[in-house]
Design goal:
Blueprint lengths: L1 H6 L18 E8 L3 E2 L3 H11 L4 E4 L6 E2 L4 E8 H31 L6 E3 L9 H10 L13 E3 L1 H7 L4 H6 L7 E5 L2 H9 L4 E5 L3 H11 L4 E5 L7 H6 L4 E3 L2 H4 L6 E7 L1
Parallel strand pairs: 6-11, 7-8, 8-9, 9-10, 10-11
Antiparallel strand pairs: 1-5, 1-12, 2-4, 3-5
């Protein structure tokens, strides 16, 4: 948030200075929905403004994680006009971005309703904003996935390519104790190696739903099969019905459209 304010040079607004005394008057900023979406990021709006002025006051109106309709006031912020104008773009950027992620996630969650599948994200996040975008996914009803390279072993295609003649089980035996292990498999041979190594979390990446269903049956109970690769909210249900317990969708964070929100200022 501070980096965003510095990037926008929020304390050096040459335009607002032209207002003269009017810039110091008390005013209210109303954040309004211009479309239907799931709200995420309201706490950040307050933090943006209190970073600029400790006297700024946020009045949240919409509920974090709720669907809102066009015309709904999401929140109001009271501060001087100069403070409100200085933080307007940064506050909107965060609110629009996180609400967009939460909305796309909610659509995927609703698509798999009634199944045992859960929706999660990938590491295809905006550089520097991963923590916030992961938060938005959970606001939308998804579950948190691996947040960094250190949080879990995720054995993927390039690891297979570099394994050579070594045994997968031997390689995984050196994994840090207590760190989750996930192995991506591309064919039945890799699936058998992973199951023989005692892997309890299989990642089926870029596989047809029919193959996912077959691998779920082969893995049996006690093994989590995760589907990933090009899945959208529209196709997620097919993978859920195939038996995938976890469905990771990169688009939640790399392709979520910004939620339509505007900010209107008025003197008090």
């Amino acid at each position: 948030m501070r980096r965003a304010l510095e990037e926008d040079r929020a304390r050096d607004d040459v335009t607002t200075r032209l207002l003269g005394a009017a810039a110091g008057r008390a005013a209210t900023a109303a954040f309004l929905a211009e479309g239907r979406f799931v709200v995420a990021g309201l706490p950040l709006v307050g933090r943006v403004y209190t970073e600029l002025d400790r006297a700024a006051c946020l009045e949240p109106i919409a509920r974090e994680g709720a669907w809102v309709e066009p015309g709904v006031v999401l929140a109001r912020v009271r501060a001087t006009a100069a403070t409100l104008l200085a933080g307007e773009r940064v506050a909107l950027n965060f609110l629009q971005r996180l609400s967009g992620v939460a909305t796309l996630t909610r659509r995927a969650v609703e698509a798999v309703a009634g199944t045992a599948a859960r929706i999660t994200h990938t590491r295809k996040t905006t550089p520097g904003l991963r923590a916030l975008e992961r938060y938005a996914v959970t606001v939308g009803g998804g579950v948190a996935n691996r947040g960094s390279l250190a949080e879990a072993v995720l054995w993927k295609d390039n690891h297979w390519a570099l394994l050579g003649a070594r045994d997968l089980a031997a390689a995984l035996a050196a994994a840090p104790r207590g760190v989750p292990v996930v192995v991506e498999v591309e064919d039945e041979a890799q699936l058998e190696q992973a199951l023989a190594a005692g892997v309890r979390h299989i990642l089926a990446d870029n596989q047809a739903p029919e193959r996912v269903a077959a691998w779920v049956r082969r893995a049996g109970t006690g093994v989590t099969v995760q589907a990933s690769g090009g899945i959208t909210p529209e196709s997620a249900r097919v993978y859920a019905q195939a038996g995938a317990a976890l469905i990771s969708i990169g688009a939640l964070t790399h392709s979520a459209p910004a939620a339509p929100i505007r900010c209107d200022l008025a003197e008090e």
